[in-house]
Amino acid sequence: MTFTLHVDGPRWREHTERTRDAVRAAISAAPRPATGGEPDGRHAANEGDLVPVAKGNGYGLGNVRCVREAQRLGLTRVAVGTVYEVAEVAASYDGEILVLTPYEPADRTAAAAWGVLGRAPYTDRVIRTVSSRPAWDALATGTTPSRVLLETMTSIGRFGMTPQEIGSLLSDDATADVLGRGHVRLEGLALHEPIAQPHVDRRTVAGSRWHDASVAPLAPAGATRRVEEVLSAGLGWQSELADLTERLSGDARTDLTTAAALWVSHLDDGELAAVRAGLPDIALYARIGTRLWLGDRQALQARGTVLAVHAVGRGQASGYRQRRAPRDGAVLVIGGGTSHGVALEAPSPVASSRQRVVAAGTGVLEGIGRSLSPFVVGGRQRWFAEPPHMHVSLVRVPEGVVLPAVGDEVPVDVRLTTIHPDRVHGLD
Fold first, then answer.
1. What pTM, to 2 d.p., does this model score?
2. 3-class DSSP state for residue 396?
3. How far apart are CA 158 and CA 152, in angstroms?
4. Is residue 221 predicted with pLDDT exceeding 90?
5. d(Cα 287, Cα 149) in Å, to the nearest integer?
6. Hey, which CATH number is domain 44-294, 3.30.300.20, 3.90.320.10, 1.10.10.10, 3.20.20.10?
7. Radius of gyration of the chain from Cα atoms?
8. What is the pLDDT of residue 249?
9. Which 3 state secondary structure label does DSSP give 80?
10. What is the pLDDT averaged over residues 209-228?
């Protein structure tokens, strides 16, 4: 009952290397040649870097395989989705591990997992995201030293502290004391931008509390709203840190120099370069998952193994629900079911009239018991005979189509962020 993911290893690895190099060029602070073009290709660690994301199903590849590839790429930081994913990744990767989901002490189950992680031998390699004052206070008064990114609220409206909340936190004498003792180490500011451009008025951004034109330049001409939002936060963050630094001394002041870093998501290379132009003296870490692992979609193909082929006549019933065949043909039993993520999908982000019509039509078909499967036979996706089972699917093929044999593999047109293949071929 095998469901596999086949990877063209050389092509896929060439893509990941190109992505790494493109991101490093975008965030490079090195001057460009007088004739134009790219920097000389050297990478300085204090400029920041690409931070691969390995979370959930590991983009179909698995988190362990993703972090091993990150290590092959020479990347010293990765990001995982939750605290529950740290242990598996830490066993296969010796760099730093950022947990994207914010630490929340009120989530008692996750807090218990953090407690276990605090006693693990790799705990000093883990960076927490903190998006609220209660979470910061819990770490500040806890017994375990912590490395922390503060997360600020962006247009995505999910997690984060407002600029006012961050300013209040950093101006608190208790915060200076905690940082001075080294109990909490501040590693930077996290910003999670939306995929669509934010609905932010440029004048509002430029006039926000976190923008000081006397300290750094305005957004470059033609900057996107994502860039404006990141620059506004970055400028304000630098200002807050400068005030905090004046109240620290010795090692604590030295440690705070790394805190100016910005950790961003969903900026393309042009936007990263624009942020670098506006903030030339900070480390810029670009958290990237889908583009890195799935950016060359032609290098990856899911396949299901044909396990049985049954000729059926019109009106003949089959399956758990005993649905009748609408015409003569065959039912194929193919490896790949709900446990593999087949036919599981998120709601469609319909935006155009055409997408709305397609979504409405799909809903009508499902309402009368017809669902198009992701399995491709004879060059076309074929209809499910009934909803997929846990490990296999029953797929109808009309008469006249050349049938695959038992043991053959058929392509599966499926989202790789939702699948759990039995095997991944091409990267071992």
1. 0.88
2. strand
3. 10
4. no
5. 13
6. 3.20.20.10
7. 25
8. 77
9. strand
10. 66
